[in-house]
Amino acid sequence: MTDDLDAETLAFAHRMFDLARAGSAEELAAQLDAGLPVNLTNDKGDTLLILAAYHSHPATVTALLARGADHTRVNDRGQSALAAAVFRSSTEAVRALLAAGADPAHGSPSAAETAQFFDLPEMTQLLRAG
Known about the structure:
The chain has 8 helices and no strands. It has one domain: Serine Threonine Protein Phosphatase 5, Tetratricopeptide repeat (Alpha Horseshoe). The chain is globular. By secondary structure, it is mainly α.
């Protein structure tokens, strides 16, 4: 988002990011279907998909992926949606991202590195199983 956006537009964008954080899949999907860019990114580089994954909302992750969300995007810290879902041990979100083709080695730290660093053997196993 840039500094030249008006207050109303900024408020709307913030509300869309809040929907992703809250897991409001239906409302967010309706906004996407009405033309909201699926890869909308905040000032930290977080996409709607990264936020939904980080906040453990697999239904929202699935809705975003179904509408073309780019699972290869990383935020300004190099983190992917898959790494976020692994960090939160969100099994269903991890499965959805893997089914969409997300790479466990992508990002820095990658999802695989995140699982190893935080000693999440269930997530490591899930990533290996693909």
